[in-house]
Amino acid sequence: MYLNISKKISEDFKNFKIDKIESGASNKIFYKLWDEFNSYILVDFNCNPDEYNNYIKIYEILIKINISIPKIIHKYDHEFIIICENFGNLRFDNILKDYKLKDLLNYAVETLIVLNNSIEFNKTYNIPQYNYEEFKSEIMELPEYYFPYIKIENKDLIEEFLYVWQSAFNNIEFEFKNFIHKDFNINNLILLPTKKNHLKCGVIDFQSAFWGENSWDLFSLLEDSRKLFSDAHNEYFIKYFYSKTSNQAKFKEFINKYYFLSSSRHTRLLGRWVKLARDLDQKWYLDFINPTLHRLKKNINLSNNKNLINFYNKFIFNL
Asked: Are 205 and 188 in contact (CB under 8 A)?
């Protein structure tokens, strides 16, 4: 397998050693290319060439603004392969015990502020725009996968679930015109100690970017579903982010969208963890259910929607 990869890249790397990197649920394949003096990351998108094209498209947008993303060293369009900078192994989720949480979150939030203020809505970028159909397909992962997992087999309940969410969605004035990374989680952020200020936050895995509400990446960061860490700084960073970005909505509307969309995301993830555990035969994905439930319960109860609160307290949290 490594021989096949070495045949697809240029002679510049013929003397480099190749080590495969664990990729989890990703359909991308990662390798480390290294010699005595240099180290790079090779990403093979052959399992999903559309992701390669999306990655290159988003890369061309992000490389022009003042944030830290891995610079592409070589790309092979016909092979759907890129070779890029190696940002190292100081991934935020692995270093929470070694660095001050508030400092790490500050680097990340400052990066989000730059993203929000630097990229204006532009249809010519050909980035998908979030909408109700996408929203519906995401939340339906809960009744499709999580309901069977907790032994709920009630079609009427599924209809009620969808009705409650649809009614709540229709009562909020969404814009979906902000650039969203989509997976701005601590496992996609890497500390770069030699850089300054927000550039210490290296951002990876941005090929799924879309136009959405600007609170999305913020709650992806602060309400992480994989790992429980203190939310003592959340109120500060939510207010700080709001004050530093362009928001037509009043703060109350902004915060309602924050908790509503965060609740929908955690709803989807409850189903997603079950699906991944089953499809990949990786039972450890089920370990993320309790952190997700913890975040979801808080977010639902702050969503300012009585119907959602009542539904989840009755059928999800009180089982």
From this structure: yes
**Separation CA 92–CA 75 (nearest Å):** 27
Residues whose CB falls within 8 Å of the CB of residue 29, separated by 6 or more in sequence, listed in order: 20, 23, 43, 44, 46, 47
Residue 56, classed as helix, strand or coil, is helix
Using CA atoms, how far residue 112 sits from 186, 191, 216, 291, in Å, is 13, 15, 10, 24
Asked if 75 and 121 count as a contact pair (C-beta separation under 8 A), the reply is: no
Architecture of domain 2-85: 2-Layer Sandwich (3.30)
* Helix and strand element counts for the chain (H, E): 12, 9
- For residue 170, the model assigns a pLDDT of 96
Output phi, psi for 104, to 5 deg. -65, -45
**Cβ distance 108 to 233 under 8 Å?**
no
Decide if pLDDT at 319 tops 70.
no
Give the global pTM: 0.93
Fold for the domain defined by 92-315: Aminoglycoside 3'-phosphotransferase; Chain: A, domain 2 (3.90.1200)
Between helix 155-170 and helix 306-315 the angle, nearest 10°, is: 150
* Residue 185, pLDDT above cutoff 60: yes
| Under 8 Å between Cβ of 82 and 55 | yes
The predicted-structure confidence for 46-77, as pLDDT tens digits, reads as follows 989 999 999 999 999 999 999 999 999 999 99
Long-range pairs for 35-41 at CB < 8 Å and ≥24 separation? Answer: 39/86, 40/13, 40/16, 40/73, 40/83, 40/84, 40/85, 40/86, 41/70, 41/83, 41/84, 41/85, 41/86, 41/87
The label of the residue with tokens 């992701």 reads 51
Distance of CA 186 to the CA centre of its chain: 9
Residues 6+ apart with CB under 8 A from 261: 213, 215, 216, 219
Q: Using CA atoms of 227, 230, 234, 236 in order, give the dihedral in degrees to the nearest 10.
A: -150
Write the CA distances from 235 to 72, 241, 242, 256, integer angstroms.
36, 10, 11, 13
Query: 84 near 71, Cβ under 8 Å?
Result: yes
